[in-house]
Amino acid sequence: MVDMNVLIVGVGGQGTLLASRVLGAWADIAGKDCKLSEVHGMSQRGGSVVTHVRIGSDIAAPIVSPGEADFVMAFEKLEALRFAYYLKPEGTILINDQEIMPMPVITGAAEYPEDIYGRLAADGKKYISVPALELAETAGTSKAVNTVLIGALAKITGEELETVEEALKRTVKPKLLDVNLAALKAGYDFIK
Amino acid sequence: MKKLMLTNEAVARGAWEAGVKVVSSYPGTPSTEITEFCAGYPEMYVEWAPNEKVSAEVAIGAAAAGVRSMCCMKHVGVNVAADPLFTAAYTGVNGGMVLVVADDPAMHSSQNEQDSRFYARSAHVPMLEPADSAEAKEYLKRAFDLSEEYDTPVMLRLTTRSAHSQSYVELADRVEREPKPFVKDIKKWVMMPAAARGRHLVVEKRERELKDKELPEFYKIERRSDKTGIVTLGAVYQYVKEATDASVFKVGMVYPLPVEAIRRFAETVDELIVCEELEPFIENQLKAAGIECRGKDIFGLQGEFSPAFIREKLYGIKAPAPVSDVPGRPPVMCAGCPHRGVFYVLNKLKLNVCGDIGCYTLGANPPLSAVDICVCMGASVGMAHGFDKADSPLKRKTVAVIGDSTFIHSGITNIINAVYNKGTSTTIILDNSITGMTGHQDNPSTGKRITGEATAKLDLEKLCEAIGVQSVRVVDAYDLEAVEKVVREETAREAVSVIIARRPCALLTKSYPPAYSIDPDKCVKCRACLRIGCPAIEFIGGKVRINKELCVGCGVCKGLCRFGAIKEGR
């Protein structure tokens, strides 16, 4: 496992917390120092949620600073745009290609931004779009978007699939393990 | 063995290792998980109490009975528990007692940004603050040692960031302890004025002893620069280490503060800076001791710190900023939330709504826009009675809205007050059969204990009737016609009334009916359905659609469409 700062962003209820815990287990298996920071409570209710993951050695702060993330794992497109500023110049955003309308858009008080990918590219951000919802559904559950993205992250960082499978076994409830293993592989294989 | 642990989990583990026997708490973000993790250790008795005052009193009793006890709460919970805390500092605690408090700088999930360190000083009890999960476990165990040694409650303070961060923890075994006998002694245990005067002297003596010792195990000096020295604590210590190359004095015992050790540290650097979130608690004590320092003039009182924030404030280095034109994504009530329809009706009837603390505070946001005032746990009922007794023009248009757990926490006494004092207010109890906001904890109205075991179920209707509420009505929170009818009738009534709007939290339901959908041939795009603010109903590209990933088939929206365009299934 490579040393990395990862910011996991999404909409409350999408499983960002579980994703960070899988990364934590992965770091543990790899013998790395790791700190995670998550926010619970109000933000669970469909709001914008952020989880910080830092993997390396002798880590102090449990949070990633803006401009210092190697990866932003975005579970939703608008959230990718919102948190892109956390990315290092050479970092990558992994984006689940899904749009979830926030309440100001639903009520007509705001517009959902058009051409998010174009804006990210114009801003010099490197991104990879993953059809994670589709891949998760094929694997057996729409709830496994998080696992698909972790699979993609594992492949990009040159990790063996077996290592992350082990991390998943330590984190996911046994009855949900099979669909999550399938989702993990789908994300892993999506990255060529 | 080493384990990656949430600090809240590490506190629970620390309690278990320290031989704690009794844990009593009320849920409150960011402290909730401590007690939930405690419930996983069968050697400890663990309970959800109806509020923080009760939890502290249970802990005091258990400690007096001779065992180690703990109560955990969020910062505003200490306001509720302050009464027993201040006097337990006088009586002492025999077996050892720790109150764990989690503050919430930046108010991720709270109504104010109060700094609980002042409680330690006002109550004259020691307070420790750890900087990560491993230290949280060690400090909690040491807090129990201090509690027994000095015969005082000890506070352990966390903040949202430390409570909800994970880092590695070295695990140890549990040490069982022999209970100490409770020895009758009215001069120590019965706080009447004559006895309390004697105990106040004990409190002062104990505090002076602890202050003079300045226990070196609770501070740490890291020398890196002769120019700048930074005094810091908790999660902020980690940020300072990362953001600066200054020498660091890390405070572990927040109260009493090791002032003389800090004075010696200050003499080794050209300038001393105090880096602490919220109030200038340390800074002002240092200044009062004649130690020159800066702090709040650099960092201010507001919000949560971070390495980037410290770099900006100390060195003027600006971190990359977010793009400004991205629509916000505030938290919302979930699709299928039983509270939503009630707020839709309150908005429709243009009522003045005294709100309370829970998921349903979100009813204040557009488009429901149906909470007009919200202060603290239980306040809704009292405030509605206040509107009533002020003879406000809004008197007959006012309702209190409160959740089941919040009602039990501190709404009941308000209803008693309204009945006793011949009020005419109306209270709506949103009974979703769970403590929702903090992540689904059981409470006296759910009929289950924290362990899941069945227990007596508080009957809200019978309770209200016993109090003397003249009219107690129960409605299905999904049946908007019934809700509207009952609300109209009860607000018109010249007596105290309670409406129980009942439906379990949508997240508790295990199997949902199929998602609803929009019939494009019937939809006239009037957007009336959007006024209920359901996250599953979207207006995209000039068309209304129901997001099948989110819809749980509650069907509340169906009744809002006059054109019959909302249908069950695909």
Radius of gyration of chain B: 26 Å
Number of helices of chain A: 8
Structural class of chain A: alpha/beta
Share of residues in helices of chain B: 25-40%
What CATH calls the topology of chain A is: Pyruvate-ferredoxin Oxidoreductase, domain 3
Number of domains of chain B: 4
Report, as a whole number of angstroms, the end-to-end distance of chain A: 19 Å
Determine the number of helices of chain B (DSSP H or I, runs of at least 4 residues): 19
What's the architecture of the largest domain in chain B, going by CATH?
Answer: 3-Layer(aba) Sandwich
CATH H-level homologous superfamily name of the largest domain in chain B: Thiamin diphosphate (ThDP)-binding fold, Pyr/PP domains
CATH level-four homologous superfamily name of chain A: Pyruvate-ferredoxin oxidoreductase, PFOR, domain III
Low-confidence stretches of chain A: none
Query: Which class of the largest domain in chain B in CATH terms?
Result: Alpha Beta
**Series of H and E elements of chain A:** EHEEEHEHHEHHHH
Q: Whole-Å distance between the termini of chain B?
A: 53 Å
Outline:
The complex is a heterodimer of chains A (192) and B (570). By secondary structure, chain A is of the alpha/beta class.
Description of the molecule:
The complex is a heterodimer of chains A (192) and B (570). Chain A has 192 residues and is α/β, with parallel strands linked by helices. Chain A has a single domain (4-190), classed as Pyruvate-ferredoxin Oxidoreductase, domain 3, CATH 3.40.920. Chain A has eight helices and six strands, in the order E-H-E-E-E-H-E-H-H-E-H-H-H-H. Chain A starts with a strand and ends with a helix. Chain B has 570 residues and is of the alpha/beta class. In chain B, helix 19 links the parallel strand 17 and strand 18 (497-502). In chain B, helix 3 packs parallel to helix 4 and helix 16 packs parallel to helix 17 (404-420). The model of chain B has no long low-confidence stretch (mean pLDDT 96). Chains A and B meet through helix 1, strand 2, helix 2 and helix 3 of A and strand 8, helix 10 and strand 20 of B. Strand 2 (33-38) of chain A pairs antiparallel with strand 8 of chain B, so a sheet runs across the interface.
